[in-house]
Design goal:
single chain; 278 residues; alpha+beta; 5-stranded antiparallel sheet; 4-stranded antiparallel sheet; binds zinc ion
Length: 278
């Protein structure tokens, strides 16, 4: 490119916008978009205008420190318009880059704020905006395995009445008295894993059932090893087996849940609940 009015110390290069591109075109021959690079900084670019309203002989345009500059006969002319503007005021590109960075940073901050707002809305939907209050009713963890069968059914029906279908049985269930409402606080299964839970709070509209369920930490501890499993399917899914008691026996000799070890510890004998639903 010609260098009139351009300081000799400036190193001016041309680089395709896509590294694969090689087609420079000509005065009346389309070419690909190239960047104008001065001292290793892209200050703008040149491109071919194929539109009907552009006359032949004026098909090259550029963008950069001179703004949009159109109707040049050659790519070189279009480049010069930008390089001249840059030579007159090299700071213009720095200011443009700084302005772009500021705009990007502001956009990122707006997005972060929107994300945080959304996360907060989801949290409020899940646990409510009001403060926790005193616990007025509590069901110990593992009640579905350690509790009386009728009690388990009553608790299940009560949870279902509140739209709670995926409550973890390995956590406590509580009713809290908050300032303007009673709420049920549960750990709800989250995703596909049985282990992942998240706290969920719903307004309690139906009184919780009266449940005689003293906490049994001894049974909870026993359930670490002696617990019911449906896998592999036993008796076509009619029964579940105790994992611990069945581990060392053959598939023909599974120990059906509740196993003797657990029944003895629970002290409930035949009245003990069979398979727990939820
Ligand atoms: Zn067992």
């Amino acid at each position: 490119m010609t260098t009139d009015l351009i300081p000799a110390a400036m190193r001016i290069d041309r680089r395709p916008r896509d590294p694969q591109w090689t087609d420079l075109g000509g005065p009346d021959e389309p070419g690909e978009e190239y960047l104008i690079v001065v001292d290793d900084t892209a200050i703008g670019g040149t491109y071919w205008c194929g539109a009907d309203y552009i006359a032949d002989g004026q098909r090259w345009a550029s963008w950069g420190p001179a703004g949009l500059s159109m109707r040049h006969p050659t790519r070189e002319d279009a480049e010069q318009a930008q390089v001249r503007a840059y030579a007159a005021d090299p700071g213009v590109v720095d200011r443009q880059i700084a302005a772009e960075r500021r705009e990007n940073a502001a956009a990122a901050a707006r997005q972060d704020a929107a994300d945080a707002e959304q996360a907060k809305a989801r949290l409020v939907e899940r646990v409510g905006a009001d403060s926790p209050g005193p616990t007025v009713w509590a069901l110990p963890s593992h009640h579905y395995l350690t509790g009386d069968q009728d009690d388990v059914a009553a608790v299940t029906a009560w949870l279902h009445a509140h739209g709670l279908y995926r409550v973890s049985g390995r956590h406590e269930v509580r009713v809290e008295q908050r300032t303007s409402r009673r709420v049920i606080v549960v750990e709800e299964l989250h995703g596909w894993s049985d282990d992942a839970t998240q706290t969920r709070v719903v307004t309690c509209t139906v009184d919780p059932p009266v449940v005689d369920a003293p906490p049994r930490p001894d049974l909870v501890e026993l359930l670490d090893t002696h617990y019911p499993t449906t896998f592999p399917l036993i008796d076509f899914g009619q029964n579940v087996a105790c994992v611990a008691c069945t581990r060392h026996t053959s598939p023909q000799a599974v120990t059906v849940w509740p196993c003797p070890v657990f029944v003895a510890a629970a002290g409930r004998g035949a009245s003990f609940p069979q398979v727990a639903g939820t």
